[in-house]
Amino acid sequence: MRKCLNCGAIYSDDALKFCDCGGPLVRIPQEQPEGVGDIDLQYNDLLLSQDYESQVEREISDGLKITEDEDFEVQELDFQRHVVDDDELEDVEGSFLDDSMLIEYSEKIPEVEPSNVIEEGLMNEEISESSENLEEDVESILREIFGLDEKMPEPTARMSSQDALDEESKDVGVWPSNISCDSNGLDRGQVVSTSIESAEVVPVQTSSISRKPIISGIKLTIYRSGLKVSEKDFWFDEILIGRSKSGVEVDVNLRDLDNERITSRKHAKIFKDDGKYFIQRVSQNAVVWVHGKFLEPGEVAQLYEGDRIILSNTIGLIVDNVQPMF
Amino acid sequence: MIQIHLSMVIWNFGNSYSLIVRGNLGDKKTFITVSKTLKLFECRGLESKEGEKMVGSEQKIVMTYKFEKPYISSDSTKDTENYLLLELRPKTGVVNEKIAVKGVDFCIVLDVSGSMKEPFEGNVTKVKAAVEAAKHLYGFLTPDDTVSVVLYDSAPYVVLERAKPTKEEFEKALEKAYIYGGSTNISQALRKAREILSKNTGNLKKIVFLTDGIPTDDTEQDGLREGRLIAEEKISITALGIGNDFNYKFIEELVKPSRGTTDWLKSPSEALKIFQRTFQRTKSTVITNVTLELDFSNKVRVGEYYRVVPETTYYGKPEFKWNRKVELELDNIEYNRYYQYLFQITIPPLKTKFEGPFRVAKMTLTYFVPSENKAYKMEEDLIVEFTTDEDLVTSRYSTVTDLVCRCQLNKLDTKLNEAIKVNDKKAIVGILQEISARAYELNDYELADHYEKMRDELLKKGVISNEMLIKASNHTTKVNGEGLIDEVEDITKVFKDVFGS
Question: What are the FHA domain coordinates in residue numbering (chain A) (predicted)?
């Protein structure tokens, strides 16, 4: 058995020298030293082989005398790494839910209060900065950039039945980004948006349960002052967005869209990591808002279908998956 | 065991000359190489016993690689921007002219449009210079070769097809160029050449394409599409521009997919020299169908990439579809030339701190040796070292840094031509300033002055002459040399030159 020094992944193939992450693989003993169990390692082993499962389980219970479940608690990080990633997990979760379950599920979602919001860190951050003015500002910026009359691209094609709700959400100042929608066309965003209304707080991300991550290729649609300026598909590892006089260093040049020079030369970077796309604010001064989240300089956020990115008062992007040609 | 630790010394000689000495003797072997240009001493610890990291002892190609930053801090919490330089060269003592390809199917595609009848130098017209230069192919032909000649103006005219002509027949065919003279349709001519060469004969296939202008009866896009189709047929193309009216960037783009080369015929004597060199190079090919597959580790990201030599070419960013693999067709290998490719790489910080090797990518190189009728495969892990030694972390291969800067000149020139195409004057001025500054940094004063003159001309007259653009583009493709392998240097002489007696 070999273990990656970098990410900790375990391989049974002794011939391998490097992990898929690039980290070197080192040989690990088959048997755990008595009383010195590596919980993570043993759990990983469990995932690798059913035959090995019982053996390791015995070792764990014998060697470590585990009696309580919490003693065998698996790190969330390990779970994501070795089973499925967070988004995939949610997708898997979604696929098990039928319509009635979804309704039931939706009804169980509690009223959103700051303490209940999933993105707790984000919420606190936003609250510290938030004010009614800010909320209004963001809303008006969104209207300015993406326009009000034009029907915005939806996160999924199954959103057609939710236009009215979407518009309603905009009118009441709810962050008008992805109204989440499950694979059966049911909108779970409604519950969240209602809750947000009642909470009267700054824009909050809708539940990410049905948000589709951007994978493989990314489509960027650029808007300026309510008009769609251009759209382009990218398959690169990194896409640099900025205002460049020469256009040499950037993949998306904002120069001709930004006469007031509000955007930065190196404003934001979209990059691919483990097959998913993320955005990072590169600029120290120019702002980046993604799906209601204000990014600090250097901060990174994952991108999902339909996310609206604000780069200035008038310039914004909508991201989507590149649709397959067939 | 004796352990010797060499201290690190860096000497700066102006902007680009430096000397680095470092390393341990003991567990890891340390070696020193001296570059001919005396730009630096390069020392690095490797597992191999001597020389650079070499791959494939039974192979016909020696592949070496180096990262601009071979060591990365284990403590780093940020991405590390790096450059990977891959070099392929035919294996000394194994690969020589004796195993060069036996047969080549040549196809000469000559522009015979009206403008070719304009004077080139003295009384010599462009078409005359081209025909006379092309006649020299005959001297390189062997019994296994075939030759085709396609003349073109608004339509292609096949005057010789896959023939093994006598000298007289060959020259007579070429001289038919004097009777034509119309507008220009490049894509039709290239399509005809492709159709002729698409028949499989087992020979190497080569198009030598010459133009003096821009397409008039078709578009550049039509020509570029043909360029891609030619590459799919595994046909190599050399594109030559004659005079001052053609678009250098167009011919550069035309040959990109087939990893071809370009040149500028400035005078009849130059034309002769360049045609001869093109034929000679084709007949020097020893290895074909070279394909490089790079399977990058999960979180490693890839930016732009370049061919460094034999001709500097900016290829932009590779596209990743559904996995982390990039597959690239590389140049055919000549027995007396080396080939370098440069990749911009972003390496992520470690998840768990450790010291040791980190695989950036797994490389698979496949190629074919026609003289043996045998395909080869070579695999290698491309590795950087994570370390906590801060001295090592700050070390750089200045040769790689230098190459990066030179390659970026070609990129900037490409962007300049794009800006000119859309008449984006802001961008044109910005790029001219930037490229001139970069050229100064590299001590390439001739190029820097040239770009400054271009900017002055733009500001005074509002336009840049095509001749200046051609000269600049031609220069930036040759900025790293042509990769010819020199004779083995006398190391004693080099030391003497550096340190005196």
Answer: 239-295
